Amino acid sequence: MKKELTNALNNPQLLSPPIYIQPEEIKIEGKRILHLSIFESSQVHSTRGLVFDRNNEGDYNITNHTNSVANLFIRKQTNFTENKIYPFATYQELRPEMIQKARQMAINRQPGHPWESLSDMELLQSVQLYKKDYSTGQSGFTLAALLLFGRDEVIASVLPYHKTDAICRIVSKDRYDDRDDIRTNLIDSYDRLIRFIEKHLSDKFVLKNDVRISVRNLIFREVIANTLIHREYTNPFPAKLILEEGRVQTENANKAHSSEPLNPLLFTPYPKNPVIARVFKEMGRADELGSGVRNIFEYYTYYSDLKPQLEEKDVFYCSVYTDKSKDSENVTENVTENVTEKRLKQLLAYIRENPKITTTALAKMLSVTRMTAHRDLEKLKDLGLIKRVGPDKGGHWEVK
Question: Is the full-model pTM beyond 0.70?
């Protein structure tokens, strides 16, 4: 049942965009129950091509009512998740030392910063972390305030699935060499992710305007800030930072505005959590919207001949390569990586077990990107081990 639920929730033909829910097994009075927490989404979802809207206590099919569908999209897209108000949250739910840390970093970056003369509450109000919703009349701290400065137990209460999983798989590729399960506020999360990168990835230095700078910190400051700032926090998909041999990859839930790989020259940024982004910017941990992507592409050549891969879908994938090729003439702009025999065998086993399994589900089960899973499938087809029967949507795999 868990397998069928997971496959259904990750099948875009049944639910689009998919939702990433992990069934939780609970034992009550000797019986086992599968519990799924379904949180309010910031996206419009369809099931089997149909769109439903909630009205009073009923779900009504509005697929053919274009105005209703348009209004549903407008309702979803005009409100940022970070602005959700928690009217019963008080200053006691926050960590004053984290507010002071943010204030001091802003002052260090810009002497005479306006935050210097503000009290904690005045600072929070100035950046819209405490606000009033004029459509409901509610006032209180927002989700952004709790994520940035909240105590860990408070964050766990409002977002029980919130975490960032930092994993190092360089020697032990089956499990991991090192791991940090990060379930804390975004400011501490940033520090722990930076330390994790510094611990496992060698640095590269370069002179810029006669100043010696760290390329590692320049690149991964942007990667880590992006995965924290631009995450869709209503989606329980577990965010990850994975260090592998020759690559660092991040994954986080996303409210996608396109499905194409990002091109830094043609990139048009969309704000995902502008309040959180502003606080990070004031602290000096992020730059203007869109500059992070450009910085990643500007400095990647000090690590690798392979261009970073940024894919904006329901899950945002960012891969930065760290293996400098000795023969760059044979390196293509597409992602190239060694496909291990063990992973191909796992792939075959999953397909035998469920011939209708989707590429997205395979990627999740193998802990790789969808792009990598697609290339693995192509490799198996080239080897004559599998064959696609029927169309991409509605067809199935056949193991030959």
Answer: no
